Amino acid sequence: MRKFGLALAAVSFAVLMSLSAVAQTLDSLPFNKKLALAKAGDEEAQMAVADAYGSGKGVKLSKVEASKWYGKASDQGNAEAQFKLATLFHEGAPGIKKSPERAAKLYAAAAKQGHIEAENWLGYCYEHGLGVAQNDTTAVEWYQKAADGKLAMAENNLGLMYLNGKGVAQDYRKAFELFERSANQGYDWGMNNLGGLYEKGWGTEPDPAKALALYRQAAAKGNDAAGKSAKRLAPLVIQSESNPAVEPAGGAPDKPTTTTTTPPSSAATTGSITPPPLSAANPLAAKPKLPPMPEKKVKSDSSAE
């Protein structure tokens, strides 16, 4: 019996070593061998083939073929495949018709497995009613899950929900904390929006110099809105530093306006599976004179068409 147990252990070890070797060598295999493994049902090979078709690396670029192989891996329960296939249906591509319903379904399948980016984008779908019934409360729940996973984009998106009181009670301090977390990870929209709060003094003390520094950091990452804000604010900061003045007492702070984020466009993501930032406009650009700020309160159907 002991000999049988040792033999069984040896076989199990050999199988594990064989699987490890396959995993280690998959990336080094030529495309035709990856394709053969994918056709045999190997999930990781299916992902590798899909990625190759999606990027055009080692094979002719074909989003349709990419969707086919992501679909096969997705049917095996691969969360990353579900997410990547969802983005193809979300954005559309040559030979692939946009389908918000399929995208939302696939985002949900991946999100339920704890895929952080899918959680964020499922929140986006609920916020904007894409493929699902619009529901700000559910959007906040999914943004929160992704933010708990420290996804900078989700932290920013959840911050916008708190800033505008969508799905949650409006809370500038909470929005500030979330934008700060996002900005600290180097996310340009988190930097931009944190700069806006420093400029306005929402959820924190006003600090135009910090606002300007954050706008410039975001602009350096290619954020055009931040660049415009930096250009607008810079002369005021220089003037303030040269001629410090006392602010008149009793002024009511501006209330932030409701922000409408823009869905990702296929043109903005050509050649990349990574969706673009959701915050497509500076939520703090408008300056309406509205009531004062409230007291502070102490983010499968896998066949392509």
List strands and helices in order, with pairings.
Blueprint (H helix, E strand, L loop, with lengths): L1 H24 L5 H9 L3 H13 L7 H13 L3 H13 L8 H12 L4 H13 L7 H13 L3 H13 L7 H13 L3 H13 L7 H13 L3 H19 L63
Helix pairs in contact: 2-3, 3-4, 4-5, 5-6, 6-7, 7-8, 8-9, 9-10, 10-11, 11-12, 12-13
Protein architecture, described:
- The protein has 305 residues and is mainly alpha-helical.
- The protein has a domain at 150-243 and 255-261 and 277-299: Tetratricopeptide repeat domain (Serine Threonine Protein Phosphatase 5, Tetratricopeptide repeat, Alpha Horseshoe), CATH 1.25.40.10.
- 59% of the residues lie in helices and 0% in strands.
- The chain contains 13 helices and no strands.
- The radius of gyration is 24 Å and the shape is elongated.
